[in-house]
From TrEMBL:
<dbReference type="GO" id="GO:0003700">
    <property type="term" value="F:DNA-binding transcription factor activity"/>
</dbReference>
<feature type="domain" description="HTH araC/xylS-type">
    <location>
        <begin position="240"/>
        <end position="339"/>
    </location>
</feature>
<dbReference type="InterPro" id="IPR032687">
    <property type="entry name" value="AraC-type_N"/>
</dbReference>
<dbReference type="GO" id="GO:0000976">
    <property type="term" value="F:transcription cis-regulatory region binding"/>
</dbReference>
<keyword id="KW-0805">Transcription regulation</keyword>
<dbReference type="InterPro" id="IPR018060">
    <property type="entry name" value="HTH_AraC"/>
</dbReference>
<dbReference type="Pfam" id="PF12833">
    <property type="entry name" value="HTH_18"/>
</dbReference>
<keyword id="KW-0804">Transcription</keyword>
<dbReference type="GO" id="GO:0005829">
    <property type="term" value="C:cytosol"/>
</dbReference>
<dbReference type="Pfam" id="PF12625">
    <property type="entry name" value="Arabinose_bd"/>
</dbReference>
<dbReference type="InterPro" id="IPR009057">
    <property type="entry name" value="Homeodomain-like_sf"/>
</dbReference>
<protein>
    <submittedName>
        <fullName>AraC family transcriptional regulator</fullName>
    </submittedName>
</protein>
<keyword id="KW-0238">DNA-binding</keyword>
């Protein structure tokens, strides 16, 4: 059997699944049933390194919004009513510039959310969107602030039709330890301090024109807001360019860093430096993450045998794939598949 070429979409850390369930747990929902409905095996929560697909994660956010009647999934004390995001978007596509859209959009949400205050900051050559808490710190509030920042950034990027390059992202000093994958998602230096969550960019971006309209909004709303949590990666980054080069070569011997550098018209030294700037630990980590993400996608296909998947990922022996997948995710591939297939 020949599998379709891998799409190599990034997978989602199980820690993100656990956090987005915080509101549902606090309201007494049966989270195992929600996970199963989204195609996620509840057993994965017990394995900190495990991953889920973007489709599974998006499905879970839709289920949470429907069950809780809350567009922020029960993370705030007062629900954000269904339809609030769409109504705000309809206002924003009528704006002339990004700055105008941010002012209006954040003003709307200040009326809807009691737990924190979102504002646009103008700081000379810098601009930023900050989220300041209105009540004492707790893990649910902290995650609500982070989710709001992700959504606001994704929406702003969609409005201007391109990813807004960020200069820095600030996490509150109360954040418990480094936030996993934050630098890779934002593609910006992560700072810790103060009480606010914020993302900063060049003030000139505030004059970018809003390029979306009522027609493009209809297509956008069919997937948003959940799609915004994963969509706006920097596809021009070196990391993403390498993933695109490698994803159709997984079944063969993958090129070396020097060979990839030549294809990207960079020196190996420059390539290593660019990867460090993007928060990557090295070239091997990109190859491993790509193989892991494609393996997770393939294991969701019950018709594909494990030796076949191993071969498609470039492993000559199924036992080698077994060891690698367990190292990446904390679970053997057979156990991962069994958990998924046995979830219902």
């Amino acid at each position: 059997m020949t599998a379709n070429p891998p799409r190599a979409r990034h997978t989602i850390a199980i820690a993100q699944v656990e956090r987005i369930l915080l509101g549902a747990r606090g309201r007494g929902l049966e989270v195992d049933r929600l996970l199963e409905s989204a195609g996620i095996a509840p057993a994965l929560l017990a394995t900190p390194l495990s991953r889920v697909t973007q489709a599974q994660y998006a499905h879970l956010t839709h289920l949470l919004r429907h069950r809780l009647r809350d567009e922020l999934w029960g993370l705030c004390r007062r629900p954000v009513p269904p339809g609030a995001f769409a109504q705000t978007c309809r206002l924003l596509v009528g704006c002339r510039t990004l700055g105008e859209a941010l002012e209006i959009g954040l003003r709307q949400y200040r009326l809807l959310i009691d737990d924190f205050t979102p504002r646009l900051q103008r700081l000379g050559d810098l601009a930023g969107v900050s989220v300041a808490p209105r009540r004492p710190f707790d893990p649910v509030l902290a995650y609500a602030q982070r989710v709001f920042c992700f959504l606001a950034y994704g929406l702003a990027s969609w409005l201007v039709g391109r990813r807004i390059p960020l200069l820095a992202v600030n996490y509150p000093a109360t954040t418990p330890g480094p936030v996993s994958e934050a630098a890779l998602v934002f593609q910006a230096p992560i700072q810790y301090g103060g009480q606010c969550m914020a993302w900063y960019f060049g003030a000139g971006c505030l004059e970018l024109p809003v390029v979306q309209d009522a027609s493009s909004l209809r297509a956008f709303l069919r997937q948003a807001p959940s799609s915004l949590l994963v969509k706006y990666r920097d596809h021009a980054s070196v990391t993403e360019r390498i993933r695109r080069l490698l994803r159709h070569q997984l079944a063969a011997e993958l090129p070396s860093l020097a060979q990839v550098a030549r294809q990207l018209e960079l020196t190996p030294q420059t390539l290593r430096r660019r990867l460090r700037e993007e928060g990557q630990t090295g070239f091997r980590a990109i190859k491993d993450d790509l193989r892991r993400d494609v393996a997770v996608e393939y294991l969701a296909r019950s018709e594909m045998a494990l030796p076949e998947i191993a071969g498609l990922l470039g492993f000559s022996e199924a036992s080698t794939f077994h060891r690698a997948f367990k190292h990446w995710t904390g679970m053997a591939p057979g156990a991962y598949r069994q958990a998924q297939l046995g979830r219902a």
